[in-house]
Amino acid sequence: MSNEALVVEIADSGNGKTDEQLASLRQLTLVIYILYAFAWVTGLTAIVAIVINYVKREDAAGTLYESHFTWQIRTFWWSIVWGVVGVITIWVGIGFVVFFVLFIWMIYRLVKGLLYWNDRKPLPVQ
Length: 126
Hints:
The chain has helices spanning 3-12, 19-37, 44-60, 65-89, 94-118. The chain is mainly α.
């Protein structure tokens, strides 16, 4: 474990969560990232992921995983917005470009989130 990860974990320990609760949140955060990744195969997994995000959001409050939940929720809603834009503009050919950019953006969001998750770092969300 890196020194930064240790500092984050020590800072996280001041939130009243037990080590088991933090480990559970860590695992759940990974599962949610995986569900979002599989959304490109079946959109249903994104629905399951967003429901979990909202149901467990309060549990993540005050931990480094709170930023991951915010990141995941924002990724979901912005992908919905741009997906709708892609559908609306598909008949003029622009929609294909929108879907391609959306696909690349989703990969970026998933990879960045997973890298921060792996390093046990909060994501820089405002």
